[in-house]
Amino acid sequence: MSDLKKYCGVIPAFYACYDEAGNISPDRVRGLTRYLIGEGVNGLYVGGSSGECIYQSVAERKLVLENVMAEAKGKVVVIAHVACNNTADSQELAAHAESLGVDAIAAIPPIYFHLPEYGIAQYWNDISAAAPNTDFVIYNIPQLAGVALTPSLLAEMKKNPRVVAVKNSSMPTQDIQMWHDAGVLVFNGPDEQFISGLAMGACAGIGGTYAVMPKLYRKIYEHFQNGEMEAARQVQYEADRIIYKMCEAHGNLYAVQKAILAKKGVECGSVRKPMPALIESDQAIVDQAAAMIDAAVAKYC
């Protein structure tokens, strides 16, 4: 088992980076990687929901990770989400991720068909077996996957020595306590309650809005670690207000965030269909959210 302290802190979920034709852009992947490292984040979570993984081929997901690792290896922790809708593709991505030297792989449970717990455990263990020297993170996101992690399923998975953590994106912070008590690391998923997740025992946060305002989440984490709870709460509130503003747009949240990054000179392209792209009236929301981020950074960071 690796040194688990390296997983603490603020870990943005990496955005999909496309060119103007909608293809993966290696240059933009590398640019976003360099930007986030420069912002002082602790790690990157690549190929998850924010990476639009379910809309990408195995080859595309490999291309993304290869270019992230070209910039990030040895500088920050990299966790690669490798789950696909079948075991064979997931194993291929897991083996590829290990060959690149990622710190950990992660996987949601199989989606669409609701499998019994022993079937889910077999799926995860088969993926882990394809990367036998790499830490494994269970990704619990029941509102999208359609199935929730349970204490009994986690107990079964803990028989696998590579299982070190749960990325918990269920909304009840109570769930964090359950996984913490089971003896694994827990990454807080819901960005709006980062401080609450930390209070319940999460060692870090992995979030889809971290990349657009990393300094704010780093400040929340810093205040929490210093015991400055009121200060942490104030920054959390500000981050939440920014999230609410971004969610007012017609376009998908990731489209909004990529547009905000573009204003900073970090080009990521749009989003892949069927996700809705920005429309003209969304630009006002992009501008307002970007201004809110700048103001909050100036005030709190």
From TrEMBL:
Return the SMART domains for the record. DHDPS (SM01130)
Q: Which InterPro entries match?
A: Aldolase_TIM (IPR013785), DapA-like (IPR002220)
Q: Which GO terms describe its biological process?
A: N-acetylneuraminate catabolic process
Keywords, comma-separated and alphabetical = Lyase
Entries under SUPFAM superfamilies matching the protein = Aldolase
Q: Which GO terms describe its cellular component?
A: cytosol
Instruction: Note one Pfam family from the annotation.
Output: DHDPS
| Name under which the protein is recorded | Dihydrodipicolinate synthase family protein
